[in-house]
Write a structure and sequence with these properties.
The structure holds 2 protein chains of 2 kinds. By secondary structure, chain A is α/β, with parallel strands linked by helices. Chain A contains 8 helices and 18 strands. Chain A has 2 domains: 197 residues, 3-Layer(aba) Sandwich (Rossmann fold); 118 residues, Rossmann fold (3-Layer(aba) Sandwich). In chain B, a hairpin with a 3-residue loop joins strand 7 and strand 8. Classes of the chains: A alpha/beta, B alpha/beta.
Chain lengths: 344, 290
């Protein structure tokens, strides 16, 4: 029994009763989009004990919460969770469904999109509502009103693309963590719990979760006041010690360019740029980073930028407030020494 | 004996090494100016297949959808130890988004008959979507294990892997058949083997064979071994053209913009004790540091 709600839906990611930050951020963005579209914001939450979380989702922006609860859904696995989402989407027909671009969101969303045969845009950094004119040779141009603009870095983060999916519903996207603003918790907000009933045959449970090890994030680039980042110019994993040393002295977080991460100098969690984490520290020190566009787009909002590079023509100097041209093996230790002596 | 493995690979422009020459005046990328390479994580997927082959025995079929030139990544797979190679190429496939791509790839895998494991890279560096793997798994109606860092164990009809999750990892087991997407952390791909390179350097698609020039034919004896790379079009895999390429793609690109970086008046700091001391003092005074 289908019921076309036309809502904006958020897939809520939860793990052991904790709702992912990105899901709360999406409730904020989702409610902004639904206000424009004059529809309600729906939140789907799946797990073995999720009833207790429905109130929180309402406080963060959901108008209607769809809990799917079953003991067998204790751990996230792709097929049963996707089955639950597909069933609900077919029943309630939302016009938009948003997912966090996490390892879970990027696992489940494509599976759902494939089964529903709808479009999906990965890793969006912005979402807007607007009109779209589709050029058509036969019937002339077709105008689509109030379409979801799915905006994302493309081509290795070197350009920005706006993607639309005009002919298919729901329009679906995964969204990066940290790019949308979370609403503050509104105790007075009221919402509705929508009861759901979903068949979960045993054949869906083909993945067994043997072990799950999750630590609080050790690297927190987003809230760092100072970041020292190294690039290919650092030369080797061993020499990356220089970056760690400088970061240690300045009580800074360590970042890296994609090239440095690709080369194995530093782990993925440290990657700064459109393809990694977008950062806005008070001070960003780029060491041996020439400045690919996708990197600079991800750190250019920093309050101050110091670039250290041996190539005076490196693009990074175009966006740096301070440029030091020279050998980083010489400059970084000097920087450390001077800082230590000034702090005495 | 052994497993039947399909590896899905893609030839991509090298977006990780974009030089000034590849950027157009308007800030967009000139694809043609970038070298075409084997998508890095697809090489990691192939490596996992080769490791299984060495340990348990396997027949590895490498499939790539792309233009005729994409035969190059199939040859590279052959040099590393793949057994069968299939290029899926057809004009109707052009402009495919991930949904249309997974439709075509899933039909090609189905045509192979019984497959135990489908391997592919987590994502391709020209799109970074990580969608084609899960979508292909759904179309094949098989399980998916994505972001896999390690194959822990493989049994006759099941597999255990480790996959990364935010701030950690999880260990999952699944029955076969299964589709696995592999990350760059899984392994270091082997280089081409010289012996295989010499043995297979003439491996070609029928398209390439037809376009050989006379001097090549005169200098080389053309044998069956030349036509090692099969080519399938949409008829061969019984694909509905409506579901392929641009017409089978729900997503449309509305607009492409360059990233505008405001140019900053940069102050040159002398690389000397005095220069750096002045800079740090200034930052301390402004509470940017300290």
């Amino acid at each position: 029994m289908a019921m076309k709600t036309n809502e904006v839906w958020i897939y809520i990611e939860q793990n052991n009763g904790k709702v992912a930050d990105v899901s709360l951020e999406l409730l904020g963005k989702g409610s902004e989009l639904s206000r424009k579209l004059k529809v309600k914001t729906g939140a789907v939450i799946i797990g073995d004990a999720v009833r207790g979380l429905t109130g929180k989702l309402i406080k963060y922006g959901a108008d209607r919460v769809y809990p799917v609860e079953a003991l067998a859904l204790k751990n996230y696995t792709a097929i049963p969770y996707a089955h639950a989402m597909v069933t609900l989407v077919r029943e309630f027909e939302p016009q938009i469904v948003l997912y966090g671009a996490t390892t879970t969101g990027r696992d489940i969303a494509p599976r759902i999109a494939s089964e529903l045969r709808v479009g999906l845009t990965a890793d969006c950094t912005n979402l807007q509502i607007g009109d779209y004119t589709k050029p058509s040779s036969k019937e002339g141009d077709i105008l689509y009103k109030d379409i979801l603009y799915q905006i994302r870095p493309a081509f290795g983060g070197n350009i920005i693309a706006t993607i639309v999916s005009p002919d298919h519903r729901p329009q679906m996207a995964t969204v990066r963590e940290g790019v949308m603003k979370m609403n503050s918790e509104d105790e007075a907000r009221k919402g509705e719990i929508v009861e759901t009933k979903i068949d979960l045959p045993a054949r869906l449970f083909v993945t067994e979760v043997a072990r799950r090890v999750q630590m609080e994030k050790a690297v927190d680039l987003k809230s760092a006041a100072v970041i020292v980042s190294g690039g290919m110019g650092v030369g080797s994993k061993e020499n990356f010690k220089l970056i760690h040393d400088l970061a240690h002295v300045l009580s800074a977080q360590v970042g890296g360019s994609r090239a440095a991460v690709d080369a194995g100098f530093i782990g993925h969690d440290h990657q700064v740029g459109q393809t990694g984490t977008t950062v806005r520290p008070k001070l960003y020190i780029a060491v041996g980073i020439s400045g690919q566009i996708q990197h600079m787009a991800g750190m250019k909002e920093s309050n101050r930028i110091i670039a250290i590079n041996s190539d005076p023509d490196a693009p990074i100097f175009q966006i740096a407030h301070y440029g030091i041209v020279g050998d980083l093996n010489d400059i970084v230790p000097r920087f450390i020494d001077v800082y230590k002596s000034l702090m005495k | 004996m052994g497993y039947n493995i399909a590896v899905l690979v893609k030839q991509v422009p090298d977006t990780h090494n974009i030089t000034g020459e590849a950027m157009k005046e308007d800030g967009t990328v000139n694809r043609q100016a970038l070298p075409a390479i084997f998508n890095p994580e697809d090489l990691n997927a192939l490596e996992e297949a080769l490791k299984i082959k060495e340990k348990f025995g396997a027949r590895i079929t490498v499939i790539s959808m792309g233009p005729p030139n994409a035969a190059e990544v199939l040859r590279e797979s052959l040099y590393r130890g793949a057994d069968d190679l299939i290029l899926i190429t057809d004009r109707v496939f052009a402009g495919a988004d991930t949904l249309a791509t997974s439709y075509v790839l899933s039909l090609a895998v189905k045509k192979l008959g019984h497959i135990d494991i489908v391997l592919c890279g987590r994502q391709a560096i020209d799109g970074d979507t990580a969608q084609v793997g899960p979508q292909t798994a759904e179309k094949l109606k098989i399980n998916q294990l994505t972001f896999v860092n390690k194959i822990v164990s493989l049994k006759k009809d099941s597999i255990t892997i480790e996959r990364s999750i935010e701030g950690g990892y999880e260990t999952l087991s699944s029955k076969l058949p299964v589709l696995i997407t592999v990350t760059g952390e899984a392994n270091t791909p082997r280089p081409p083997a010289v012996k295989k390179l010499l043995a297979y350097k003439h491996a070609m698609t029928p398209i390439e064979l037809e376009s050989l020039d006379e001097s090549y034919i005169n200098a080389n004896e053309i044998t069956d071994s030349h036509a090692m790379i099969k080519v399938w079009d949409h008829r061969e895999i019984e694909a509905n053209p409506e579901q392929c390429g641009l017409s089978g793609s729900p997503t449309k690109v509305k607009q492409i913009e360059s990233i505008v970086l405001g140019v900053q008046e940069s102050r040159k700091i002398e690389n000397s004790k005095a220069g750096i001391e002045a800079l740090i003092s200034e930052l301390l005074k402004e509470h940017i540091l300290g």
